[in-house]
């Protein structure tokens, strides 16, 4: 028989050639096991959402509207107070101004669903007791007298815990801003006058300053919602640096890495570089504190207990007050629900402190003050250098404890 012709190389295109078998049999067995457990099957079409219940939509219309208004007001930027605003804040006309602006308060708007619901319940109980006096819903007020201190303690502890979180977040943010300002000052005032004699890279120092100023902005966008970090960092970082930060999963830590690498690349004395790098631990601490405040609320069991206590209290309040107040239970329930739920609502709002702080204004204030400091530093340095040269040419020295002329030197001797 004639010998078989030699095999020709496959003419299959490279993109159609089969992949070589996996060298690891364990990985190949694992992939085969996954393929068996999760075969490629067409995903079933999601069923269309059922038509909403008209009654349910009507009942949730007011809470949805109040929540939408509240969330929209939460995103409003907070201003830093000026002297004029402080004078208005402590003005004797503030009570009238606050009363006239009640309908625009987000706290009061958020109270519309519960207060209106409990007032309607009070009106229903009053109507029933009036129409059917033989079977009127009444009860003794003794249980309310016994449980009123418990409700007061719940509200007090709730607001105190929320304010403690607010104060902790404010102090953490102040430490971050103070650390950034201190680090910028150390970069712009190096030991030995390095920045003034032209021996260091001015572009590198400027970029490092911008990295430091960008950190509070990135942290602000990290701990608040609906922030446009690209817009906020547009004027601080170069486009390529900004793209690296935007693709990072943790943007504040990415900027810390930019700062750390820049400190290593620039010509600083070793002990001074060590001090600067130690300042970065304050940034990391600020990140941890802010993330803990955002991620861990006041214990939910405490919040739920306060909410349930308030709801049950006001559901039964018309029954308790009917014997003594009659139809006055309707305005009494309204006033009680509005006041107590308002205290609880304030505690819930300040529990998340960062939307309540003027973070945007503080970042802008830090940026403007640092750039003003750099401009003042340049002008002061130029003036001192010129003054020193003129004094050296005239043979005089500044009045800093040394003799100003040869005659004064003779008098001292």
TrEMBL record:
GO biological-process terms attached to the record? photosynthesis, light reaction; regulation of photosynthesis, light reaction
Segments carrying the region annotation (Disordered) are 1-28, 387-413
Q: Which InterPro entries match?
A: VCCN1/2, YneE/VCCN1/2-like
Top-level division of the source organism's lineage = Eukaryota
Task: Please list the GO terms describing molecular function.
Answer: voltage-gated chloride channel activity
Decide whether keyword Transferase is in the record: no
Its name, as the record gives it, is Uncharacterized protein
């Amino acid at each position: 028989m004639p010998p078989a012709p030699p095999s020709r190389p496959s003419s299959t295109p490279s993109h159609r050639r089969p992949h070589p078998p996996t060298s690891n049999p364990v990985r190949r067995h694992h992939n085969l096991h996954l393929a068996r457990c999760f075969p490629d099957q067409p995903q079933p079409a999601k069923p269309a959402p059922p038509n909403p219940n008209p009654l349910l939509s009507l009942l949730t219309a007011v809470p949805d509207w109040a929540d939408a208004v509240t969330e929209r007001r939460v995103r409003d930027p907070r201003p830093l107070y000026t002297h004029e605003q402080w004078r208005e804040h402590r003005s004797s006309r503030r009570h009238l101004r606050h009363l006239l602006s009640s309908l625009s308060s987000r706290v009061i708007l958020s109270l519309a669903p519960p207060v209106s619901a409990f007032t309607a319940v009070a009106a229903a109980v009053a109507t029933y007791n009036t129409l059917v006096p033989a079977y009127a819903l009444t009860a003794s007020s003794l249980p309310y007298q016994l449980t009123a201190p418990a409700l007061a303690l719940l509200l007090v502890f709730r607001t105190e815990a929320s304010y403690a979180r607010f104060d902790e977040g404010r102090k953490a943010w102040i430490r971050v801003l103070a650390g950034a300002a201190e680090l910028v000052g150390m970069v712009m005032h190096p030991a030995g006058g390095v920045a003034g004699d032209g021996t260091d890279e001015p572009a590198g120092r400027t970029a490092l300053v911008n990295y430091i100023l960008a950190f509070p902005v990135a942290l602000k966008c990290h701990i608040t919602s609906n922030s446009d970090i690209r817009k906020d960092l547009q004027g601080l970082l170069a486009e390529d640096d900004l793209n690296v930060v935007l693709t990072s999963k943790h943007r504040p830590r990415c900027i810390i890495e930019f700062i750390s690498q820049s400190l290593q690349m620039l010509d600083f004395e070793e002990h001074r570089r060590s001090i600067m790098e130690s300042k970065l631990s304050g940034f990391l601490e600020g990140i941890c504190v802010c993330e803990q405040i955002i991620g861990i609320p006041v214990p939910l069991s405490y919040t739920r207990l306060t909410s349930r206590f308030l709801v049950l209290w006001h559901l039964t309040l018309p029954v308790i007050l009917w014997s003594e107040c009659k139809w006055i239970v309707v305005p009494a329930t309204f006033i009680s629900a509005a006041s107590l739920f308002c205290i609880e609502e304030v505690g819930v709002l300040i529990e998340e402190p960062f939307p309540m702080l003027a973070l945007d204004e503080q970042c802008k204030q830090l940026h403007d003050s640092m750039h003003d400091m750099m401009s003042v530093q340049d002008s002061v340095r130029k003036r001192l250098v010129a003054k020193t040269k003129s004094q050296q040419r005239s043979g005089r020295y500044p009045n800093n404890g040394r003799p100003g002329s040869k005659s004064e030197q003779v008098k001292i001797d």
